Amino acid sequence: MTDRKNQSVATLDHAPFFERAFRYGVQQGLIDQARIEEITQDAANGTIQIAEYFGASSHLRPNLEDASKKMVSLVSLYLEDTTDGDLERSARLLREKPFRTLSRGGSSMLKSLYALPEDKHFGLPRLDSEKDFLYKTLQQGMSVQKYRQTFKAREQFSQDLRFAIHLSKKIGMPVSALSDMHASADGVIRTLLLLMAYGARKVGNSPKKFPDQRDACKIFASIRKEWGLLGEVNCSEAFMQEIPEEFVIGAQKTLLSIAHEDIPKIVNPTIPMDFLFERHLGYKYFFPMDPMAAVNAYDNLRAEKWMTLTNGAIDDESVLTLLLCVAAGLPARTKLSVAEAGDVVSSLRKHGVLEQEALLLIEDSPYADREHLSAVWHDFIEDARPYLLDVSDSKMKQVVNYLMDHCNIKKSKKKVKA
Fold it and tell me: Is the pTM of this model over 0.85?
């Protein structure tokens, strides 16, 4: 009963764990006077070694005091982690093992932590050497709880990086290339699982290279088409049989995330394909860095969308008709009848010119055409505004005649006379 009480009180003690364990051992008769003297002598020798290891003179008292605190921190970390905070077991270790051995145990723990990656990116340089890391950690102090949390997180980083390497090797992507681009393990894993589960048939019979954005566009477009035809998207999991057991849970978790979070966006026909990269999914995936290829991929997507929207028309009259409809808040069309042109004018006079809508539509056009389209639209709308909004032209004769000269209006045999 006394032992349990002492251990319970000890948990409220803010002294280093070594001191609590040592005090408990002395009080319970586990550590006698002879052992106290051995610990004291061993600690004194170890303190000198630690001071010299960190480049401090062992002849100055402040340096020895600082080194002594570091040694106590190392022993405390090792004891508390090894015994899970059990004071009796810790006291027995203090009785049975040399003090410097316990100190080296704590040092080995920190070195093992340092050896693990700090995050999930390939090729990021370490800012600190092992010695600098040990020094900073011991100066700042690290509880066993903090150590365990950090170690667990970094072990996961290591596993994710190994899994990314495993998947990359299957398609011949060298680790050096991932390091050069500081690729994220999460992005690599997600991209390659998407390729293997949904896209292998869409970019070839088998994945033989790391997909770029053009390949991703093909995969996304095929997934959207598959959903449009079947109302569902099929996921192939045959490749899972070849994944090492240690990575299976992570692979399944990522596949579930893709199915529940990404696929619904990919198949949503209201989300433009380029927006999938720019606003929805791009940050989750990794594609080899090729700025020109990225520009071309996005531009190709915009070009396809623009060609569909304009029905392939490239003349200024058709494009102005399209933009005018949008600015009137009406469905986009590249050709209007005289009556439909009147409807456009009526909407403009009722709601005003929605110039921002037209400008947003221009942003969806191919990059090379935007400057020209912006200039054509600006010149047109400034010139057309007096006609479009002139309510005194109640029968719309003047404005329709103006639009027939500048837009794609189905002309009757004779123009409407003013």
Answer: no
